[in-house]
């Protein structure tokens, strides 16, 4: 099969280079290159407002991910409570109510 149809049904990759390829078509390569150029040029072309906005968005994303990590940090507390307290929807899986 030709290299032009990498996502077609029945197309199998035959080598490690094909498996590890980040992009497979010319359009994907061009899109990735355009995105990388825009991302690299953003700090030089943006105004102070957009730079401040980007920093605030990044800080908000970091804060949101820290809340996700916090749940796993205190899992030893809430995990024991879920196992011991019989809650209607959050009970243990081995307690089947018929």
In short:
This protein has four helices and no strands.
Task: Write a structural description.
This protein has 98 residues and is an all-alpha fold. It has two domains: 1-44, no CATH class; 46-98. It has helices at residues 16-19, 26-45, 48-73, 75-84. The N and C termini lie far apart (55 Å).
List keywords for this structure.
98 residues, mainly alpha, 2 domains, flat
Low-confidence stretches: none
Radius of gyration: 24 Å
What is the average of the pLDDT values?
Answer: 79
Shape: flat
* Number of individual domains: 2
Main beta sheet: strand number and arrangement? none
Helix-strand pattern: HHHH
Distance between the termini: 55 Å
Proportion of helical residues: 55-70%
Strand percent estimate: under 5%
| Helix/strand/pairing category | mainly alpha
Number of helices: 4
Number of strands: 0
Describe the SSE topology.
Elements: H1 16-19, H2 26-45, H3 48-73, H4 75-84
């Amino acid at each position: 099969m030709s290299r032009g149809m990498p996502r077609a049904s029945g197309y199998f990759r035959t080598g490690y280079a094909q498996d590890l390829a980040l992009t497979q078509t010319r359009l994907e390569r061009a899109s990735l290159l355009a995105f990388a150029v825009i991302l690299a040029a953003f700090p030089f072309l943006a105004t102070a407002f957009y730079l401040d906005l980007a920093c605030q968005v990044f800080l908000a994303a970091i804060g949101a991910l820290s809340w996700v990590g916090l749940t796993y940090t205190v899992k030893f507390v809430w995990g024991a409570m879920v196992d011991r307290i019989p809650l209607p929807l959050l009970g243990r899986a081995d307690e089947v109510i018929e």
